[in-house]
Each structure stands twice: as C-alpha cells, then as structure tokens.
Amino acid sequence: MTSKIIGVGNYIPSETITNLFFAQHNFLDEKGVALKQNNTIIAEKLKSITGIEERRYANNNQVTSDLGFIAAKQAIENSGIDPETLDYIIFAHNFGDVISGTIQSDSVPSLASRVKHQLQIKNNYCVAYDVLFGCPGWLEGMIQANAFIKAGIAKRCLVIGAETLSRVVDIHDRDSMIYADGAGAAILEINNHDDEGLKSHLSASFTLTEKDYLFFGKSYNTETCPDVKYIKMIGRKIYEFALSNVPDAMKKCFDESGYTISQLNKIIIHQANEKMDEAIVKRFFDLYEQPVPENIMPMVIDKLGNSSVATIPILLKMILNGELSSHQINKGDIVLFASVGAGMNVNAIVYKF
Questions:
Q1: What residues does the Beta-ketoacyl-[acyl-carrier-protein] synthase III N-terminal domain cover (predicted)?
Q2: What is the secondary structure of 251-287 as a DSSP string?
C-alpha cells in the first residue's frame, strides 16, 4: 500500500515584478552602508547567479491563505473528489497571513483552518493544521500525509504550500530581489490497486551549527526600521550547506526506492537559485559516476522567483498541465523531489507516476 497524487492545483499571482522594479531601491550592507555597485549591476548579477528575471507578487487584497485556497480549490476540482471526504488539510507556510502594508504575521487560527472554512467543509473530522518547515514544508506535508495514509488513519489528504514573501522582505537588502509569492496544492489518496505512488522519502534537520543560516533579522536601515524584523539569509553559507548535504540526501532517498539511476526521469527541486540547483543535481549524478542527463531538471525560477514552499507544487502542476513545452511527466515515470531551507531542513521524495 502507498499513496498517490490524484489532483494538483496552483495559483500564480498576476502581478509581474521585473528586475527594473528595484532600480530605485536604496540597497545597504549589513552595517547600513550603501552598496558601491549601482542597482543595474546588482540586478544583472542577481540574474547571472540565480536566473531570476521576474517574480510574482500577490495583489494587495490577498493574503497567504487566500492564495492557498485558490490552489486547493483547483486541486479538488482536478481530482473530482467531494471535499467532504478529505481526512486532513495540511498547510505549509512560514510567515502566516500578512496583510499588505502591515508588518504583523497572523497564524491564529491556522491557515489550514482558514482554507477549510473557505472551502465550506462541514466534516468536523477533517483535521486542519499547519506545517512550518522552511522551504521544504510542502514536501514535508506530503510525507506526513503519506504516513497518515499508510498508518490507516486517513484515506485522502490535501497538502498546500503557499507564501507571500513579498510582505516580509527588507527593501534595503538586495536578497529581497529573489523572493516571490505563490501557492500550490495536491491531493494524496490511498492506493491499493497499482504501482503508482510515493516510494521513498527522507527528512533531516541540521541545527547544531546551521540553524541561523536563514533567520528573522533587523533591517539594514536601522534608522527608519529599527524594531522591525524581516527574512534574512547568509547566502554563501546556504550555498555551501546545500552542495554539501542535499546531493547525499537525494541519493540516500533514491537508493531506498529500489530504482536504478538509469530509471530516473525527472528531478523537481526547490526553485531557490538556478546555479545552486544545477550544482546540486550535478553532484547528485557525480555520486553515481554519471553525467547529468539532458532535460532532467525543469526550472521556472527565471519568471516566478523563489516562492519558498510553493515552488515545487507550482512547478508540478505546470508540468502535469502541459504548460512547459520541453518537460512532460508520463505514466510510469520516476520523479525525485528535493528541497532545502530554513532550519536548516532537507527532504526528498521518490514518486512513480
């Protein structure tokens, strides 16, 4: 027995933010000193390293749970199920609902409870809760849902990943340019009939010396924003950590699936940094002493940016919906999912479609 995906959905906000949006930003370093490079050069460097040209921001009247609701509703419609038959709604995020123009995060009640309310589900035994696990949160929600199903305490679970990172960025920090908003969702169901489904998974939390590579910290502009905290990262440390730990985790997870490396069809990885993801995948194949196959890793970070927990389910829905001309997932394909993020947390899933 395993669990399989029976429906997917996503929500990509309509507001496109190009790199030109940051042309007039006053970027500072950690000491509050203006960066020597002009913003055009900063944006060009960002594109060359991360691949990001554009990102999407939510409308001012939307919050994270609204985005999650839209993706969830789409996944339910895609699956054709009655939402009253859901046993769990698991919502992965990191900052709750942040109303546009404010600085306060709101996570009470849980975002999962808010989505269940918006879906008008009457079943009181459909359990709704949130997962805070950094960028790997949606994958961790899928792992938890699979565990519930295999344990016999659930038959259907809705797993949502959504974030409005545009609401928690320091406009004086050039790292703010990578972040984006969005939502994705999938419905996982018990599968006793065929070989399709989740085959192996792995999760890890590196906290001894790595805990604060991603954190909530003060603005680089200490004069105008002295007491407000924003998402911060130590980019070089994260890059080094990811290259050192993610390929090994991916291999361990893949080896536990029982498949051979020649059977792997796609790698869907958290869209955080194009060069970093390419380096991770190369090191993964190096562990098997194999070259990286062509067209193995779909990427949409150039147009959608880094929307944290939403990047993987957004991309999965786009592929399954035929929205990426150069990438398809066919019946019988073996796909490796992987993510890394705040915690520092790492996880991976092997799935047969």
A1: 129-203
A2: HHHHHHHT--GGGEEEEEE--S-HHHHHHHHHHHHHT
What is the reported pLDDT for 243? 97
Q: Which pLDDT does position 228 carry in this prediction?
A: 83
- Mean pLDDT, each 10-residue run in order, the chain (353 residues): 95 94 86 84 88 95 98 98 98 96 92 98 98 98 98 97 95 92 98 92 97 91 80 93 97 97 98 95 98 96 97 98 94 97 97 97
Distance, CA of 17 to CA of 231 (rounded, Å):
19
Residue 291 C-alpha from the chain's centroid:
26
Instruction: At 335, list the tokens.
Output: 């796909």
Count of all residues that appear for the chain in the document:
353
Taking residue 49's Cβ as centre, other Cβ atoms within 10 Å add up to: 15
pLDDT for res 37: 84
Strand partners, 336: 267, 350
Residue 272 to residue 247: CA distance in whole angstroms:
15
Which amino acid does the sequence have at 222?
Answer: T
Cα separation, 14 vs 114, whole angstroms = 22
Q: Residues 348, 139: contact at Cβ < 8 Å?
A: yes
According to DSSP, the residues that pair with 129 across neighbouring strands are 90
Contact between 52 and 46 (Cβ < 8 Å): yes
Calculate the CA dihedral of residues 163, 126, 77, 266 and round it to 10 degrees.
Answer: 60
CB 175 within 8 A of CB 126: no
Judge whether 353 and 105 are in contact, CB under 8 Å. no
Instruction: Please count the CA atoms within 13 angstroms of the CA of 290 that sit on its side-chain side.
Output: 14
- Count H helices and E strands in the chain, helices first: 8, 13
